[in-house]
Design a protein that fits this description.
This protein has three helices and four strands; from the N terminus they run E-E-H-H-E-E-H. It is of the alpha+beta class and about 90 residues long. It has a domain of about 55 residues. A four-stranded antiparallel sheet has the order 2-1-4-3. It is globular, with a radius of gyration of 21 Å. It starts with a strand and ends with a helix. The relative contact order is 0.17.
Length: about 90
């Protein structure tokens, strides 16, 4: 199972913490969750679902997507001005 970044809420509180799959899996194994259930949980989290188990509400932490990639060598002022004017219409 691939290690993924997770957001975890303790049920009954508003506190949210960030952890990773390997740390969470070790904790859940100590709480009596079997290997098959861990695999199912990992699959559901990778699919983007929000899952509650053993007093925890879990979801995969979203990775920030780059807005756009720039090739700084290819941009000149006239091209930049024309792109900015096109963005205004969105």
């Amino acid at each position: 199972m691939e290690n993924i970044a997770l957001l975890v809420n303790l049920e009954g509180t508003k506190k949210r913490v960030t952890t990773d799959w390997r740390s969470l899996a070790a904790t859940l194994q100590q709480r009596g969750v079997g290997e098959c259930a861990l695999q199912q949980l990992h699959t559901e989290l990778r699919a983007g679902l929000i899952v509650s188990t053993r007093g925890l509400t879990l979801c995969m932490k979203a990775k920030p997507k780059p807005r756009y990639e720039l090739d700084w060598g290819a941009i000149n002022q006239s091209k930049l001005v024309s792109e900015q004017s096109q963005m205004i219409h969105f």
